[in-house]
């Protein structure tokens, strides 16, 4: 079965926030009990942030597979981050895939692959040099098959 993928709009923010919440429950150890991620004000804030971001059609996109009207089976959402030109590329952006999620009842149908591929295509056409993401252990086989590698470890800092 071929997935019908479409680009999300701001009105889809509620479902995208629901799937983002779902993605955060992915267990740290593959195929074990999902992590408990509490509901709270952050879910509504996430929905509002996604709606605002999706109004910028130039640097943010989400691609989805619908299960039914108003209910998504899967999504992949990402941002284009400006970058300075360097000797190896003058492309203006790096991409960051921030959320990939499939509702449990729709897993194993290729929906994540379809949405991630659509997002990667959009990023590439938009002038993206590099695309990065953080993967759950369950997602690693998909991302590896799409050409992602651990070739450039980076350090990061988080405010407390």
From TrEMBL:
SUPFAM superfamilies: Acyl-CoA N-acyltransferases (Nat). InterPro entries: Acyl_CoA_acyltransferase, Bact_Acetyltransf, GNAT_dom. Keywords: Acyltransferase, Transferase. Gene3D superfamilies: 3.40.630.30. Residues 3-160 form the N-acetyltransferase domain. This is N-acetyltransferase.
